[in-house]
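dumping this here so i dont lose it
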């Protein structure tokens, strides 16, 4: 059986394995697979040179990965090289793949990503989930998951696991939604409502968005604070390439940091939370706009057209974000802050006031703020890639499962 995905959350290769001969073999299989995936196509000799093993040892490992369907030979290397040409190796575009899914306040989504990191199938349903019981939401999500898995199977892929992004507090069991205020879910065992038979993890959407940024972003540092937004605002802290989860796994609830102690009441039960000033619905109210299907697109279009009321609403939202982020930056000293989710599309109008607040309030030099190129796709991609990383980190488990 493949190890449960919540045990494979640390980024990159080197998942803790026993310090035995068998453990060494598993670690070396992961090293070879990660190297071919990151730098391939490569010959056996090139892989051996990069990871410091003998060519004979690498050949044995490569043969095992080929038998498991994780690596494929593309044929002889390009002509013109000195010596006998080796066979070029690449991660297979068939075989195990990661299934990612997302429960949003106003949408559901699912996708399949192969071991090369390519999205091979995707499905989305738009419509509100706020206040809906978990059971019908999970039933619709299951339909989307089955739809993308069926498409992937036609392409020669099979699901190695399922990871689901949810905007709420997730227990360390990797399946229970303890609280999702914007969905009005409490103590929901989502794992019991989703397809059986697959290794499963449920995680906070901001956490998976941060992992996507770490794995897929452009020159993302290994220490950063990732902020994302839909209806609510979430954050994730990455330290030395790993998520900082907290004792109960609830770290990163930036949206419920108070910026005005006696401000408006929040669905979480508090007052003056950041979401009441910088969440999508709060910005729409301040801008005098009615909620619609493409709220962020509407705000961005009106701001680009010069609508002063919209620009003022976004300016004030950026100020509130800057106030909330100041505490996190002063406490954690991250190398950077990365804006993702809906915030990425609104960055041109949020960033000036956000950066001004950070510069004015932080104890040290102002923390750099960048914008994710993944935007609202981050949590869904992070979910699918979390499954892919679990395979790359322990490819021997694939052979054992088979």
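and the seq i came up w/
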């Amino acid at each position: 059986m493949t190890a449960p995905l919540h045990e494979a959350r640390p980024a990159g290769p080197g998942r803790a394995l026993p310090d035995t001969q068998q453990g060494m073999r598993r670690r070396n299989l992961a090293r070879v697979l990660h190297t071919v995936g990151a730098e391939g196509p490569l010959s056996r000799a090139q892989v051996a040179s990069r990871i410091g093993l003998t060519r004979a040892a690498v050949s044995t490992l490569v043969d095992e990965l080929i038998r498991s369907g994780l690596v494929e030979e593309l044929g002889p290397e390009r002509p013109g090289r000195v010596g006998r040409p080796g066979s070029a190796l690449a991660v297979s575009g068939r075989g195990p793949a990661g299934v990612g899914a997302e429960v949003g306040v106003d949408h559901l989504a699912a996708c399949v990503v192969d071991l090369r990191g390519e999205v091979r199938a995707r499905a989305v349903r738009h419509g509100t989930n706020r206040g809906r019981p978990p059971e019908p939401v999970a039933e619709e999500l299951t339909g989307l998951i089955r739809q993308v898995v069926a498409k992937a199977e036609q392409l020669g892929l099979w699901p190695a696991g399922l990871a689901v992004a949810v905007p709420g507090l997730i227990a360390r069991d990797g399946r229970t939604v303890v609280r999702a205020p914007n969905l009005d879910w409490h103590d929901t065992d989502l794992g019991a409502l989703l397809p059986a038979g697959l290794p499963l993890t449920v995680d906070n959407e901001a956490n998976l968005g941060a992992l996507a940024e770490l794995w897929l972003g452009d020159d993302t540092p290994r220490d950063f604070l990732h902020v994302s937004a839909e209806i609510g605002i979430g954050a994730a802290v990455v330290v030395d390439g790993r998520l900082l989860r907290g004792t109960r796994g609830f770290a990163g609830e930036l949206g419920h940091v108070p910026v005005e102690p006696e401000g408006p009441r929040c669905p979480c039960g508090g007052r003056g939370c950041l979401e009441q000033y910088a969440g999508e619905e709060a910005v729409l109210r301040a801008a005098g706009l009615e909620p619609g299907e493409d709220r962020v697109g509407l705000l961005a279009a009106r701001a680009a057209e010069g609508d002063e009321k919209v620009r003022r609403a976004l300016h004030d939202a950026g100020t509130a974000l800057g106030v909330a982020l100041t505490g996190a930056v002063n406490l954690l000293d991250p190398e950077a802050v990365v804006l993702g989710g809906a915030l990425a599309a609104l960055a041109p109008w949020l960033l000036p006031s956000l950066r001004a607040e950070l510069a004015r309030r932080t104890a040290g030099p102002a923390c750099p703020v960048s914008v994710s190129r993944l935007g609202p796709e981050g949590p869904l991609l992070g979910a699918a890639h979390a499954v892919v990383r679990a395979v790359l980190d322990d490819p021997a488990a694939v052979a054992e499962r088979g």
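The CA atoms of residues 94 and 155 lie 7 Å apart.
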